[in-house]
Amino acid sequence: MQTISTLKAFQVFLIGIGLLLITLSTYIHFNVQELKTSWKHTPANLEFAYIQNRSSPARGAWGKDVAILKYNYLVLGKQYTNNRLMPLDFIFISRDKVDSLEQGKINIFYNPQKPQESFIFIEYPLVALSLMFLAGVASSFIGIFLGRIIKALLSLAYKF
């Protein structure tokens, strides 16, 4: 029984460490301040933008909102097309941001070294990242102490 509780504790600890690593690597990869200073602005033509819920009856009644959008822009005479709203839009989509977009002319940020990389907004879903970080910390601590907790509960159960 001791090895099972130790294994479960280790699994929870690894999940916590994984969440922490994902959060930190995402923060490092998408350094918003660096993007704002090193990426350039350019006008773009927004063809469409809307929110779609990816619910599926086969997967249950709930789903994730995703931004469906398409815009075109020119960099040094070459045309590019993209569909990215903001960094980390796979974690969180701001419905207000998408609703504020109107078809036609918009301004976007693009990477001068790789002009095919672009976003309409450069900002973090700070709440989502904070929650991932806190979940990682909590899982790590639970993983550390889970073996002791299970052992204590089992010893109490055997007393009765």
* Straight-line distance between termini: 18 Å
Q: Could you spell the SSE succession in H and E letters?
A: HHEEEHEEH
Number of domains: 2
Helix fraction, binned, reads: 40-55%
Derived structural class: alpha+beta
Shape: elongated
The total strand number stands at 5
Q: How much of the polypeptide forms β-strand, as a percent range? A: 15-25%
Strand arrangement, largest sheet? 3-2-1-4-5
> Overall mean pLDDT score?
76
What Rg do the Cα atoms give?
A: 22 Å
Poorly predicted sequence stretches spanning 5 or more consecutive residues: none
Provide an overview of this structure:
The protein has 2 domains: 67 residues; 84 residues, no CATH class. Helix content is 47%, strand content 24%. By secondary structure, it is of the alpha+beta class. A 5-stranded antiparallel sheet has the order 3-2-1-4-5. It is elongated and about 75 Å long. The protein is built from 4 helices and 5 strands. Strand 2 and strand 3 form a beta hairpin.
